[in-house]
Structure formats: structure tokens, C-alpha cells
Please model this.
Amino acid sequence: MTDPPAVTPLLLDVDTGIDDSLALLYAAGSPDAEIVAVTCVGGNVDARQVAENTRAVLELAGRDDIEVALGRETPLVRPLVTTPETHGPKGIGYAVLPPPRRPLSERHAADLIVAEARRRPGQVTLVTLGPATNLAVAVLREPELPLLLRRWVLMGGSYRSPGNTAPTTEWNVSVDPDAMKVALTAFSAPDVVARREAAGLPALPLALGLDVTERAKLLPERVAAIARRAGSRPDPARRGAEAGAARAGSAAPASAPSAATHPVIRFVEDALRFYMEFHSRYDGFYGAFVHDPLAVAAALDPALVRSEELAVDVELGGTLTTGETVTDWRRAWGRPPTLAVAVEVDVATFFDRLVERIGTLAARIGPG
Ligand code: BDR
Ligand code: CA
Model:
């Protein structure tokens, strides 16, 4: 297999979303990433709000040069369900950002994905951080897409751990299971896998499901470390209260807007406060799973995870399990593998990079 390039061209498909925002900041702060463009899909919030949030976050990061395209606004065949209780009414928690200045791209997300993959065959890594709807549309428009991308890396699925939406389902797949099925079928077709192998490309898409992303628990101490790295003036009283609550595993401390001097840090603190309150209510700790930045980190450096090649399929007709990523751990089907499923992750290195990259980006932007 060819080595990953020193600078990885990334297409990010997002449903921004608090952890999608952090993923955008992570990518913007990564010297080994070239953000080719960002495409938007409905998921955590509706697609138009996703497009607003995405452009606003990129502008906060000083990246108003990046093309942002709107994609499909509803799942392939089901109605869109959003999750304001997880990400806030607008998808960025308690944070408030100025309206974006840069207009949306005139290209549709699916056309953009196809065009950029065709422009640089075998080079671009597509990272999907929301439902796979745009990717499914892209694959239906260009069946050769799985051969044109360097790799598809996805945050999605729950392979050996409980779900976070229904007992066995993960949010991104459960919002549009039909799209996941279309994309997975296209990328794992035997002739595609064989041709990718022959071209020296990673044979299968890399999936980061809840099995690994729920090991990436961001605690308030780490948010304080990002602020310190940025040189943002700290707010020790509030951070102390948060850290105390995290240690005690207690409910969230009283909510107070961030007083950080640096706008990127203010955004991170205000967005994450909402997400941490959510996790405190539903997951028993004051902190947050940062699913999406982990997927971007693994796309840039696949050595952060160990994966197993497994036959995975998507349940579409269950009475209790629609959207489940059914995984043949014991090879009972005798089918060829369809996904490289991440099963272990180097969480410490990931968090060091998160602190370093977002902290350095925040320092570069400076105080407001
Ligand atoms: C995924 O669902 C969304 O709410 C998050 O942004 C993440 O992409 C985790 O299940
Ligand atoms: Ca997401």
C-alpha cells in the first residue's frame, strides 16, 4: 500500500454540529491537512443551518477561503430527524457566531465531491462526519467514485458497542441508513476492492464507530489546556468548578458564558458547555465524546487506530434495529469484508494533537 501523503487533501462532509465544529477547527489547525472543500448535509440540524454553522466556524478559524457547498437536505427515503437536545437549537450549543460573509458554493455537494475526486484521482480523502446522504448521491451520479478517492473515512456505526440513538444504532447511520447502504455497497464491491488494491490504495473504507469514538472523552481539564496553549486569559474559578464536577461525576456546574479573551476559545467553551451538559444528563459524566475530530485525526494519521476488516451490513427493515451496522465478528456469513472497522485507538496521542492543533490555531487568530 502507498504511504499517506505528507499533506492529505481532505474533503469534509459535515452536519455541523458541536463535534463537527471541533473537527473543522482540528483540520484547520493541522499542518498535514489541505482542506479541499467542505460539503453540508442535514443531520444534527437541518442542512441550511449546517451550511451557516460550517461557514461561520471556518471564518472564525480564518479560513473564509474554503469552498462550502450545500448538499441534499433530506435523507434518501426517510424524513430528516434532527437532534437539538444534543447540539442546541442551532447546532453549536450556547455559542453564537456572526453570520458568515462568504456565500455558499454554486456547486451541489455531490457534484463537488465527484468533480474534486476526478480532478485528483487517488489523492483525495473523503471524511464523512454526518449521515452518508451526500456520498450516496455522489456515488449514484458517478459509480467510479470509490476508485477515484484515496479513501473514504467515516464517523458512523456501532460495531461492538451499544448505540447512542436506539439501543443498537449510532446517530449518523440511523438518520440515513439507506444512504449508508448505498455507499457501503459501492465501496465494498469485489471489483472495486480488487482494483483499489491493485492501485496501491487502502482497499476498504475506514470506519470509526462508537466503539472507538466513545473512548475519546473530552474533559474540562483538556479544554483548559487548549486555552492555555492559545494564551487565552483563563477563567480559573469557572474551570475549577467544571473540573470538580467532572471528578465527582456530578451534574453540570452552573452555566456561564465563556469570558475567554480569544474568540476561538470562547466558541469552543460555549459550544462544549452545552455538549458537556448533555453528556452529563445522558452518559453520566461531565465531558463530551468528540467523535468527529477523532475521525479527522485518523484520516490524517491512520496509525492512531487499529482496525479489523469485517463484513458489515446495514439493517434497513428491522422493527427495533433499523440503522444497525450488523457486523459479522465470527465470520458466519462467509462474505468478504466490507469495512476496516477501528477497534483500538491511541486516545492520549489524539488528545495531545487536539490540544496542540486547536490551541495553536486559536493563538494564531489571537484575541478578539
Ligand atoms: C455522531 O452523531 C452526531 O451527533 C455527531 O456529530 C457525530 O457525528 C455521533 O454518533
Ligand atoms: Ca457529525
